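User: I'll paste a sequence; please echo it back and then give the predicted structure.

Assistant: Echoing your sequence first, then the prediction.
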Amino acid sequence: MTTELDARMRLGREVERTASVLSSRVVEAFLNVPRHPFVPVFYRRDGGVYRAWRGPGEGWLRAVYADEALVTEVDGVHAEDAPEAGVTGVATSSSTAPTLMAEMLDALDVRPGDRVLEIGTGTGYNAALLCHLAGAGSVTTLDRTERLTDAARERLGTAGFGPAVVRADGAGAYPDGGPFDRVIATCAVRRVPRAWLDRCVTGGVIVVPIGNALGGGAVVRLTKLRAGGAAGRFLHRPAAFMPLRGEDGGTVRAGGVARVEGRRRTSVVGARVLDDHAFSFWAGLALPPAVLRDGATLHDPTDGSTAHIEDHPGRPSTVTTSGPRDLWQPVETARTSWRRYHRPRREWLTMTVDPDGRQVVSFTAPDGWPTAWCL
């Protein structure tokens, strides 16, 4: 029979084996901080329905300590409150896959005594790991709802950790306690909020997932510069985090886009490229920030432009566009440049945040030719 300690040790070995080269202190944190107190109930997907799975039980324990993200909230319904019949909708909170957590914590380079701010408490598991690395008195973690922060505070206390757990708007309203040596977000943003830079000391580190319209996210590690901006490089691993949400908890999604009627043309770039995580981040940088994706349809609510792509085995795909712009054309152009530069990896890209707020992702080809996208 698998015990909690067995499961935790197995996860620690998986983190050490699967993630990139890690600090021994990060591996030690996963070996010493239990995960199960923070996810007593989580969702399993059964077809199109999310059903709550409650412990204890050996199968439940194995799932808790697997290297997988665990969905804990769907459209605002916490797993603890889920009806027996389950719920449908979009996942709105989760416990991140441990190996991705480990790589982000390693990039954050937390040292004992560092003052750490976490945006996105979620279950509290990542905050517990931060407490192990920095010391509980040095960690402040915040989330958008009282339900999340209350539950996390209780679970952290049960596990022996006492960080400052605060309900606040992740994009702006902050508690006292800064400035911070380290800032980490567990939710995706298109642009790094100014408040995060303002709360970080010069020379401090900010680790944040950058999302885009195609769902192809990546994590950037920024260093705060003396002039007030920041600069850094992306981690190699894909990271599709849930987006930062405001106080109202609203989630923007692309569902409900009507069938596209309009101009038709062909394309050698089919809809399947949207599911290629190696390409989707590169392509998403070229699209306007408001663009939403619904399967094989792209839609920009700011001007009504829409593109629907239909693949045909053995022949070019059909693109149907409406509105003032062809939203598929930037994806086609991105595909051409991505192949020309030999499929650039995320870690080859850099990001700068100027003091005046300008945020740019850049890539320099071996021949010195630069490509840049303003976020």
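Residues 247-254 have pLDDT under 50 and may be disordered. DSSP finds nine helices and 20 strands in the chain.
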